[in-house]
C-alpha cells in the first residue's frame, strides 16, 4: 500500500521530527550528535530552506524549518540518507537510523512558531538531559546572544518577532519562561 502524499506548502514553517528506528537511542554520544549537526549544516547550505530551531535528543531530532524553493521531502531525504550512510559506516551496520518517514506539522501563525520553538528548546530540559536550557545540542544559544557566529536562520525569525534584535531576544525569553513550568507542555 502506498503512502498518502503530503500537501506541504512553500513559505510555510514546519515542526519536523525524526525518531530513532524502533525508538532506539542512536544519538546517545556527542560525536554522533555532532555528526548529525554537521549533516544538517551541509544541507542548510546546499538547499533553499530556513532552519529556525533544532534540538538533537538521544533518540529523536526536532527542527523548525521554513520550506522555501526546495521541497521539504528533498531536504529531509538528503539529511537522512547522508547521516544514515555515515552512521552505518562508523558502526558497521546496515539498517535504517530513523524510523520511517519524518513527522511534519505546519506552524501557521507566529504564536504557533514561537510555541513550537519553545517546545523544541525545552525538550532536553524536560527530558532531564540538561539541568538548564543551555543544552549543547540545541539552537537555544542563538536566541540568548551567547554565541556570535550562528549558521542557521535565527536572525530571520527574530526579525519576524520585533524590529530590534534586543527586544526580540527579550520576547523569546519571556515566551520560553511562560512554558518552562507548564506540566502539560
Which radius of gyration do the C-alpha atoms yield?
16 Å
Secondary-structure element order, N to C: EHEEHEHHHH
| Estimated structural class | alpha+beta
Low-confidence stretches: none
Quick one: biggest sheet?
4 strands, antiparallel
Assembly status = single chain
How far the N terminus sits from the C terminus, by CA atoms, comes to 35 Å
Number of helices: 6
- Tally of DSSP β-strands: 4
User: What number is the mean pLDDT?
Assistant: 84
Give the overall silhouette: globular
Strand order of the largest sheet: 2-3-1-4
Strand portion, in percent? 15-25%
Helix content: 40-55%
Compose a concise summary of this entry.
The chain is of the alpha+beta class and 185 residues long. It has six helices and four strands, in the order βαββαβαααα. A hairpin with a 3-residue loop joins strand 2 and strand 3.
Q: Would you kindly provide a written description of the structure presented here, covering whatever features stand out?
A:
The chain has 185 residues and is an alpha+beta fold. 45% of the residues lie in helices and 16% in strands. It contains 6 helices and 4 strands; from the N terminus they run βαββαβαααα. A 4-stranded antiparallel sheet has the order 2-3-1-4, sandwiched between helices. β2 (49-56) and β3 (60-67) form a beta hairpin. The radius of gyration is 16 Å and the shape is globular. The termini are far apart.
How are the elements arranged and paired?
Elements: E1 12-19, H1 30-46, E2 49-56, E3 60-67, H2 72-91, E4 103-107, H3 110-126, H4 140-144, H5 154-161, H6 165-180
Antiparallel strand pairs: 1-3, 1-4, 2-3
Amino acid at each position: 500500500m502506498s503512502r498518502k502524499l503530503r500537501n506541504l506548502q512553500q513559505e510555510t514553517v514546519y515542526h519536523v521530527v525524526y525518531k530513532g528506528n524502533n525508538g532506539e537511542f542512536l544519538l546517545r554520544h556527542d560525536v554522533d550528535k555532532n555528526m548529525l549537526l554537521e549533516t544538517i549544516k551541509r544541507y542548510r547550505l546546499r538547499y533553499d530552506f530556513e532552519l529556525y530551531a533544532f534540538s538533537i535528543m538521544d533518540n529523536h531530532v526536532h527542527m523548525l524549518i521554513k520550506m522555501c524553493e526546495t521541497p521539504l521531502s528533498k531536504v529531509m531525504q538528503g539529511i537522512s540518507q547522508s547521516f544514515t550512510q555515515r552512521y552505518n559506516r562508523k558502526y558497521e551496520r546496515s539498517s535504517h537510523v530513523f524510523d520511517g518517514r519524518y513527522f511534519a506539522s505546519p506552524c501557521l501563525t507566529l504564536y504557533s512558531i514561537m510555541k513550537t520553538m519553545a517546545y523544541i528548546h525545552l525538550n532536553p530540559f524536560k527530558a532531564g538531559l540538561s539541568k538548564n536550557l543551555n543544552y549543547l545540542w540545541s539552537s537555544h544559544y542563538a536566541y540568548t546572544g551567547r554565541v556570535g557566529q550562528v549558521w542557521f536562520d535565527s536572525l530571520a525569525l527574530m526579525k519576524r518577532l520585533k524590529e530590534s534584535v534586543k527586544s526580540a531576544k527579550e520576547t523569546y525569553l519571556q515566551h520560553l519562561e511562560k512554558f518552562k513550568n507548564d506540566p502539560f507542555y
